[in-house]
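An instance follows:
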Amino acid sequence: MRTTAYIGIGSNMKNPLQQVTHALQTLANLPNTTLVSQSSMYSSDAVGPGQQDSYINAVAKLSTEYSSADLLQQLQAIEADHGRIRKQRWEPRPLDLDILLFGNQIISTSTLSVPHPELSQRHFVLYPLAEIAPELVLPDGRTIAGLLTECSISELLKVEE
C-alpha cells in the first residue's frame, strides 16, 4: 500500500542550496518511493537560540511503500550521509529532513510525531507546502489555506534558481 508523505527539507550549512538540491535528488531515488512534486526553495532566518546562518527550505511530496518508521529511518540515513550529527535541538545542520504529514495519520511515538508538532507555526514549511498542495487538509481538519492566514510570510524569500 502506498502512502502520501510530505517531507520538510532544510539546510543552513555546507552550501545549503546544494544540500537541499541533492536531498531532493536522493528522495527521488529512494526505493519503493516516488517523488511526486517539490516546492520552490525558500530562504528564512534560523529558528532557535544563538546566531546561525539563514536556512534554505523546501517541501517534497512523496508516494511511498515505506511505513512511517521505515521512512524516518531512510530520512535519517540521508541526513547522516550529508554530515548531520545530532547533538542538540535547533543547532545548525547540513541537512534536516522532517516528516510533516504521513497520509492522514496521527502518529505519536518516542521517535516520531506526525503531523509535525510545529508545522502550523512555521512559515518556511507552510508556504512551500501550500505551493504544492494548496487544497491539503490536515488530519485534525485544519486546512493549509486556513493556517496560512495565521502565519506571516515575513522574512521568507523565494530563492530564484
